[in-house]
Amino acid sequence: MSAEQNPTPQTPEAEPRPARLTAAAALAGLEGLALLVGGVWMLVLGLTGSPDDRRQAVTGGVTLMVLGLLPLLAARGLLLRRSWSRGPAVVTQIMALPVAYNLLQADSIAIPGGIALGVVAVAALVLLVNPATTRALGIRGPGGSPDQK
Predict the structure, then answer these.
(1) Structure confidence at residue 12 as a pLDDT band (50, 70, 90)
(2) How far apart are CA 147 and CA 138, in angstroms?
(3) Rounded distance, CA 134 to CA 121, Å?
(4) Distance between CA atoms of 23 and 89, rounded to whole angstroms?
(5) CB 29 within 8 A of CB 75
(6) How far apart are CA 140 and CA 120, in angstroms?
(7) Per-residue pLDDT tens for 75-88?
(8) d(Cα 25, Cα 120) in Å, to the nearest integer?
């Protein structure tokens, strides 16, 4: 068994990574980093501040940090052109859309955050389903044979 369990698709080394793939990876990484930072912030406030429920604040912070790992792993996989990485990246964007909608329904400073999250999620989805991204990841459509490009 080799150390690399999921080999990179058969693409020539001279072929550069499409800009769309790099942009999708950057957006997924940005979302993952935001979740990680938000989780750390929530955890620190839960431990050092005076929250209504300390256990809930700590649990929420840890949950956000763990959820941040999914888009970060997907971003790394996208940069390395791993075909498996598109699935978690798409799921992350789909999960971000209802969160953005809820932030837009708030009557507070959360509205700009909802706009930003919605724009990032839609842009990342468009980049992830783009044919250039699909080809770069070595993903074939339904019924596509392995020798088709």
Answers:
(1) very low
(2) 11
(3) 18
(4) 12
(5) yes
(6) 26
(7) 999 999 999 999 99
(8) 12
Contact between 35 and 65 under an 8 Å Cβ cutoff? The reply is yes
* 83 neighbors 135 (Cβ within 8 angstroms): no
Token pair of 121 as six digits: 């999620």
Q: Which two tokens stand for residue 57?
A: 């604040």
Tokens of 135: 């080809």
pLDDT digits (tens, 9 = 90+) for 19-58: 999 999 999 999 999 999 999 999 998 888 877 888 898 9
What is the spatial distance between Cα 63 and Cα 44, in angstroms, rounded to a whole number? 13
CA nearest 139: which of 57, 73, 84? 84
Q: Answer for the pair 73, 91: CB distance below 8 angstroms, yes or no.
A: no
User: Contact, 65 vs 29, CB < 8 A?
Assistant: no
The rounded distance, in Å, linking the Cα atoms of 135 and 87 is 15
Q: Residue 120 and residue 53: Cα distance in Å, rounded?
A: 32
Which DSSP symbol is given to 141? -
Q: What is the pTM of this model?
A: 0.81
Question: CA–CA separation, 104 vs 122, rounded Å?
Answer: 15
Q: Which of 118, 119, 89 is nearest to 21 (CA)?
A: 89
